Amino acid sequence: MPLIITNIITKKIPMKTIITFLIVVLLTSNVRIIQGQTKVTFKAEDGLMVTADEYIAENATRYIILCHQAGYSRGEYSETAKRLNKLGFNCLAVDLRSGGEINGIKNETAALAASSGKPASYLDAEQDINAAIEYAFEKSGSRNVILLGSSYSASLVLKVGKENDKVSAIIAFSPGEYFDKKLDVAAAVYGLSKPVWVTSTQKEVPDVNSIMKGIKSKNKVQYIPTGEGVHGSKALWKSQAGNEEYWIKLIPFLDSIRNL
């Protein structure tokens, strides 16, 4: 704890924010967690078997579906999912069919898509996200889910979140126009009214602004890091400088959408 406090103070974060962060840490420090995770599978619309890691927190009912960035796997969330468990959320970290390997975890959905000849572009991964929504919605007893995306999947979760009634809120790390002329993300999410939390690196802010301006949610947060920032959800990793800032800004949003 002292190391965390020192880092926060040196970055000159407002005292009110520090107090909020410390309160959340104290409130969640005694949450009992079911240790480890379970690998699960479910079918996408085109029949491809999708692999995911399911992290269950005791007494939690809400699911956060975790979607990785390009070239990665569900391993992007091996650390983050456990912390989200401590905050009282179940997590489903999904291997999208467009991906590779990270943190020693290979993307099994991408490998299966390649071996079975299934299309595996960024846009094709949208059906994997929808399949994950169905799985989590059923497992939670018909409770709406939260989507969290990273890089290209951040754009997809904004689009899917707007269109899918089983999604209550969206968290997007470094969304952008990653799809050439196949998808205009800003146009696709225009009018989105569900709660949204978005962040990016400093350099990505102009691109994110073009997407955010069309989002009409009353609960809309855009966090811009004080430093250069980190691309994608790996900004939450302990190994990344400034990760505490991201958590400090994200936790109040999670609390605001907990019961939606």
Quick gist of this model?
With 260 residues, the protein is an alpha/beta fold. The protein has 9 helices and 10 strands.
Structural class: alpha/beta
Percent of residues in helices:
25-40%
Biggest pleated sheet: 8 strands, mixed
Distance between the termini: 31 Å
Number of helical regions: 9
The unreliable regions are: 1-11, 23-35
Shape: globular
Series of secondary-structure elements, N-terminal to C-terminal:
HHEEEHEEEHHEHEHEHEH
Number of strands: 10
Mean pLDDT: 90
Please state the CA-atom Rg, rounded to the nearest Å.
17 Å
Indicate the proportion of strand residues. Answer: 15-25%
| Adjacency order of strands in the biggest sheet | 1-2-4-3-7-8-9-10
Please describe what this structure looks like.
The protein has 260 residues and is an alpha/beta fold. The protein has helices at 2-10, 15-28, 80-86, 108-116, 126-139, 152-163, 185-189, 205-212, 243-257, and strands at 38-43, 49-55, 63-67, 90-94, 101-102, 105-106, 145-150, 167-173, 196-199, 220-223. It has an eight-stranded mixed β-sheet, sandwiched between helices. Strand 5 and strand 6 (105-106) form a beta hairpin. Helix 2 (15-28) packs across helix 9 (243-257). The two termini are 31 Å apart.
Helices and strands in order, then pairings?
Layout: H1 2-10, H2 15-28, E1 38-43, E2 49-55, E3 63-67, H3 80-86, E4 90-94, E5 101-102, E6 105-106, H4 108-116, H5 126-139, E7 145-150, H6 152-163, E8 167-173, H7 185-189, E9 196-199, H8 205-212, E10 220-223, H9 243-257
Index terms:
260 residues; alpha/beta; two-stranded antiparallel sheet; 36% helix; globular
